[in-house]
Amino acid sequence: MSEHWRIAVDREACLGSGVCAATAPGHFRLDDGRSRPVEDDVEADDIVLDVADMCPAEAITVHDAAGNRLAPDSDIGPRTA
Amino acid sequence: MADPTTVRSYPFGPIHALEIDPTYFWLQDHEPLARVKLPYGEEGWLLTRYDDVRTALGDPRFSLAQATVRDVPRLTPQRYGGILTDQDPPDHTRLRRLVAKAFTARRVEQLRDRAERITDELLDEMVKGGQPADLAQALAVPLPGLMVCELIGVPYADRDQFRDWVGAWMSVTALSPEQRGDYIGRLAGYVATLAEQRRQTPTDDLLGALVTAQEEDDRLTAEEVVQLTLVILAAGYESTASQIVNFTYALLTHPDQLALLRSRPDLMPGAVEELMRWVPLLAAADVLPRYALVDVELSGGTVPAGEPVLLAKHAANRDPRRYEDPDRLDLTRDAQGELGFGHGAHHCLGAPLARLDIQTALTALLARFPELRLAVPEDRIKWKSGMAVRGPVALPVAW
Is the Cβ pair A56, B111 closer than 8 Å? Predict the structure, then answer.
């Protein structure tokens, strides 16, 4: 059986940029100007990790079945003091 | 399908200050898919309604990559575009993800103290120079330039030179293509040198992070590192600088809104969104036309597969179908969803930084200068021409 992940969107933090829905239309849609996962529980798919990393509001999180956070990933980009 | 027999020459005419040509609003009502011909390239469809423009920006059925193989409708002999904006998802996603990590709202928020300090220093200098002062040169141009240099890691000593190169790059008609190409070449060479230094001595800035991504994980080529940096620089300078001047001008010419914002500084974040909506930054439609990959049904008709659309974001932001009383600048309005930063996969990477720069600049201006005003009559202000973005050449203010 394939691995399952859990997607969550913080609708308060969401700025409605539409980056997620345009990049992964199968997984995100805009509802009243803000993002929602199409399904909370999805089969593992790297595109949702990419999208969580790309969200300008960092409003998207992805966890594995054991509850470990997979994205956003914090090892890319400059560290700011 | 819209009637393709009427082809309008575009842009419609000279622009004046922050006014929007009434033709756009006529088209919204009567010809929401308008056939247009620009000085260069094939004919296209001009979109003016909010819903249509937003769809063309965010819907994967519209492509930017197609523009690389087509005779794109454009204002200049050479077309706009480059890394990131020449790609569609999923190709676009790899690069966008790497750079996006530097531009999250949280990370930019960590630069707020720095922005406030730079702003204070610039305003100290302005006061020292005496009245009247040009707000553009005193604050609006240097602030975003310094902030983007801060983020990327451009040394202080090189920053003036840098700004000239980037300004030349953003010019639409003020320079010949040869001159423009020469500036871009020098800029690219300089960035490559900075990147090389970071290969020897790693740094914590954005360029350092891009170099690390290239070296350690083989996720970027050296050329991509340079191109990505150039895109960020160009976007970080001229547009934000112009908007700081434009927004200040808009506030000074709307005294009721200025008074409201002075009495309620808590309105600032929403006020900046409303100013983004109300102020037309671009001189014309978006410089990046999109191509329909299949027939796409819009509110005003069908865009046939393979044809380009031009997006009048400034008109869309004033569409009465989306915003009530759209021509009124109302700082208490919920302007969420405005299209100034674009929408979808190519939504402005630097939006959090632009918001930070603008909020910081306006907050400091209002707090420090209770009597801030234009130092010349409104009709004496000279506006840029030949540039992709609008804005006063100079904004003389007194306080």
Answer: no
The pLDDT of B53-69, averaged and rounded, is: 96
Q: Which of A21, A30, A50 sits opposite B97 (nearest CB)?
A: A50
Place of tokens 């021409």: B385
Kindly report, residue by residue over A13-37, the tens digit of the pLDDT. 998 999 999 999 999 999 988 999 9
The predicted pLDDT at position B76 comes to 86
The partner residues of A71 in beta bridges, in order of sequence, read: A62
Distance CA B366, CA B364 (A): 5
State the SS3 of B135-175. HHHHHHCHHHHHHHHHHHCCCHHHHHHHHHHHHHHHECCCC
Cβ pairs A/B, distance under 8 A: 96
Q: Do B97 and A18 touch (CB under 8 A)?
A: no
Please say if the pLDDT value at position B2 is more than 60.
no
Model pTM score: 0.91
pLDDT given at position A78 = 37
Local confidence band at A76 (pLDDT 50, 70, 90 cut-offs): very low
Which fold is adopted by the domain A4-71? Alpha-Beta Plaits (3.30.70)
pLDDT for residue B191 = 93
**Chain A residues touching B337 at Cβ < 8 A:** 16, 33
Taking the CA of residue A57 and the nearest CA in chain B, the distance in Å comes to: 5
B 193-232 residues with CB < 8 A to A? 204-206, 208-209, 213
Architecture of the domain defined by B8-398: Orthogonal Bundle (1.10)
Could you tell me if residue B26 is left (phi over 0), alpha (psi between -120 and 50 degrees) or otherwise beta?
Answer: alpha
**CA B185, CA B187: separation in Å to the nearest integer?**
5
